[in-house]
Structure formats: structure tokens, C-alpha cells
Amino acid sequence: VSTGNGCGHTLLTPHSGTLSSKNYPGTYPNHTTCRWRLQAPSGTSLLLAFGDVDLEPSERCAHSSLLLSDPQAGTAYGPYCRNSVPSAPLLLTNSSSVTVLFNSTSHRSGRGLLLSYATSQHPGTHYTQEHIRASPDPPLALCFSVYCPAGCKDIHGDIWGNPSQGYRDTSVLCKAAVHAGVISDELGGQVTLSREKGITLYESAFANGLHSKRGSLSEKRLIFHKGISSCDDALEVAAFNASSWWHEVDMLGQVRAWAAERAALGTAGHSWAAEPSAETAWLELDLGTRRNVTGIITKGSSEQHDYYVTSYRVSSSRDGKNWKPYRGSASQEDKVFEGNTDSYGEVSNAFIPPIVARYVR
Length: 361
Known about the structure:
- The chain is mainly beta and 361 residues long.
- The chain folds into three domains: 2-119, Jelly Rolls, CATH 2.60.120.290; 131-225, Ferric Hydroxamate Uptake Protein, Chain A, domain 1 (Beta Complex); 239-360, Jelly Rolls (Sandwich), CATH 2.60.120.260.
- Helix content is 2%, strand content 40%.
- The protein is built from one helix and 26 strands.
- A hairpin with a 3-residue loop joins strand 12 (161-162) and strand 13 (166-168).
């Protein structure tokens, strides 16, 4: 829970999260306050990582301060500011509940703060400086596993590259992991990656709600490895069906059907399009048997018409009759996927957790 007028980007879950002051990494405003209450499951303890604490210096941190309190143990940490910084980048508490309080009065400088946290019961997580990251700098190991907290998608920093090429090693690591589709921003999670030889040019891509940048040569690149349950191969579609399709009539009176079977990604020429008057259009894929579906790639139809889908929902069925909407990792609402912004680029979205079904709409 967060309260106050000084709160910036905040995503808090029971197992991990990310929080920042208002305007971060720009100068935080005068006379603001924000209080975050972090609550982990009973029997666990919280680990906090200080990604950035840059508050204007003042005696006893009177102008701006960061204070953490542990109500269960009756202890406090801080106050912190630029001339009284945390002694270590990681703070391991003995409590499942921590209050984070940020205050500012009149000041001239300071980026504010960026913090992330996780609990002590993440399987396979070893708490070192390299294993919980909201900061831009990747560790130096050649092959490693790190824990990425929820909320990394919207922190400040750039990523260069895409899932097929890998990412420049100057990219924000956990933000790149969301772009690559190996974790969801809503939950975070453990990621495994390696550092390999760099390439001359990294192409940009739009994936999982994030734009990467086109970047030049780097000596190293980050390659994310998906778990054994994932599948990078394109699934064969036994049949396509749709709510409707457009029967285009050209100037010569010839009819061209934008039929459902033209929806396959590699189809040459025009694609599928719904009847122009349709308000609740859908496209259905029959995979022939129950399959594990880990993501979707969409593309528009640039042949003669600048057509593309900007957003969509997904539902699945095992029998073609009973349909279940996709709601992602930690939501009670149907997930709306960000689609294309032009008719020629491909956009990928990952299903975390995967869909197990025969039919997908």
C-alpha cells in the first residue's frame, strides 16, 4: 500500500516489488511525502535493495529523508540522505512487514530514490548484490541467475536488442527480461542468462508492452534462457475460424475475401480482416490437440491497406465450447495485450503462465 503525494512508480506484491519517488530520476518535488507499507506472507522476511538513494544533503537529513521501520522488531533504519547513505546496498530484515517513509522540504537537487524488495522464500534465490536488481548495471559473471522483482518494466533506463538477437549488456537487465518474455512485470521472478560475444547492430522491437532501441556495436550481449516448459517453435494451426471476414470489392467489381485462413503469420499477400461493421470481432485458432502456448506474435497487413490491430484480449478452450479469458499472473481482470502500431512490424507478447488448450481466440 502507498499513500502520499510524493510517490512515483510503484508496484507492490506480497513476494516482490519496486517503488520510487515522484519524478525519479528527475529532481523530486518540494514539500512532498510518501509512505509505502510492504507486507510479505507470514513466516517470511523482507530483503530490500537500494537501487538509488540520492537525496539533498542536510544536517540530520532535515531537508529530505528516507526512513525505514520494522514494527515487528521495533527497529528503524535511517534517516538516509546524501551525507548519510545506507551502509550496504542490501538490507535483510527479520520482519515480514516494513514501512518506508520518504519526506522532502525545500531543496535544489536530488534524483530521489529507487528501491526494490523480495521475500526470503523465493526458490533458488541466493541473496547477494547480484540477485535482486532494480538498477541498470548487470553483474560481471559470464552465466548467472538473478531474481527480478515485480515492477521493473516502468523503471528509468533503456534496452537495446530483442529476444532473437539478445540485448546489449548496457541494457537494464530486468527490464530486458520483461521485454524478452521470460518473466511477467506483474510478478517478477528468477531469470537465467548468459553473456556472449556482442554483435554489430541490435535491431529494435516492440514486445510485451516495451519498446527496445536500435543500438550499435557492443562487446558483450545478454541472452535470456527460457525454462524447459517453454517452447520457441511456432505451433501448427489445424484450422482458422473467425466471427466474420471482409469481402473487399475493388474498382473493377472483383471480390477478394480477407478470410480467416489468411491469418497465418507467414501468409503472402493480404491477411484476415473482420467485416468493417463488426464490433466484437474474434479470430479462432484450432491447434488440433491440446498444446502449451507460451506467446503470440501479431503483424498487420500492409498490402494496399494500412491495417493492424492495436490491442486485443485472449481466451482459450479445451473443447471449443467453454471459454476461459486470459488474466495473466496476478489479476482478476481480463488482460489487454498491446498490439501493433503499424502494418508491417511484428509484435510479440508472452503468456506467463502459458495457456494449455486446443483452441485460442
